[in-house]
Design brief:
Elements lengths: L1 E4 L7 E4 L9 H10 L4 H12 L4 H5 L3 H16 L8 E4 L2 E5 L8 H12 L6 H8 E7 L7 E3 L7 H7 L4 H16 L1
Helix pairs in contact: 1-2, 2-4, 5-6, 6-7
Length: 184
């Protein structure tokens, strides 16, 4: 979505704001979560800066009514997010599949997830996703739900960096699914 800013003495500029919640990456979502600890002013400033290409200096100069309008649009987009869990996602041309059978999760996988949660869910979200999602190595031609992922070896540093590009919408759906599975 486009946001036009007309400031006295300057020409009218147009900036881009996200079009849907699926445009928000895990990396941006973590910034938004981190901003929640600040004041409402800081939250609004960080949210607009993270979800648009507007310079932070200009965000600080917006009128309160304009901030309220932008924040309302962001809230509307978030309320319309797709909560359907997609078990296979593509990031930078690589397909990553969620562990196809969580009842078969290994002790090592579970121990790593448990330790990441204990160390702070928000701080370790890319690592958790890199345990749950791994490159797809084989797919069924007749059943899109049938696939095989790489075996877990605990080497997740590079994959965790890739997971930062995952849609926040997908991460939220995965966490809800995993939470229900663990507590169900």
């Amino acid at each position: 979505m486009k946001v036009k800013i007309k400031k006295e003495g300057l020409k009218k500029e147009t900036y881009n704001l996200i079009d849907s919640w699926s445009d928000v990456t895990l990396e941006k979502w973590l910034k938004l979560i981190d901003a929640e600890t600040g004041s409402q002013t800081e939250q609004a400033e960080e949210t607009i800066a993270a979800l648009s290409d507007m310079p932070k200096k200009l965000v600080k100069e917006l009128a309160l009514r304009d901030v309220a309008i932008i924040m309302g649009k962001v809230a509307d987009l978030q309320s319309k997010q797709n909560t359907l869990l997609r078990k296979v996602v593509e990031i930078n041309g690589v397909e990553y599949g969620m562990h196809p059978d969580l009842s078969e999760i290994t002790l090592g996988e579970y121990a790593d997830i448990e330790s990441f949660i204990k160390d702070g869910l928000e701080n370790n979200m890319p690592e958790i996703m890199s345990v749950l999602f791994r490159p797809v190595i084989e797919k069924s031609e007749s059943n899109s739900e049938a696939y095989t992922i790489e075996a877990y070896d605990g080497e997740i540093a590079i994959r965790a960096e890739q997971m930062k590009k995952m849609s926040a919408e997908q991460v939220q759906s995965c966490l809800v699914f995993f939470w229900h599975f663990v507590n169900g």
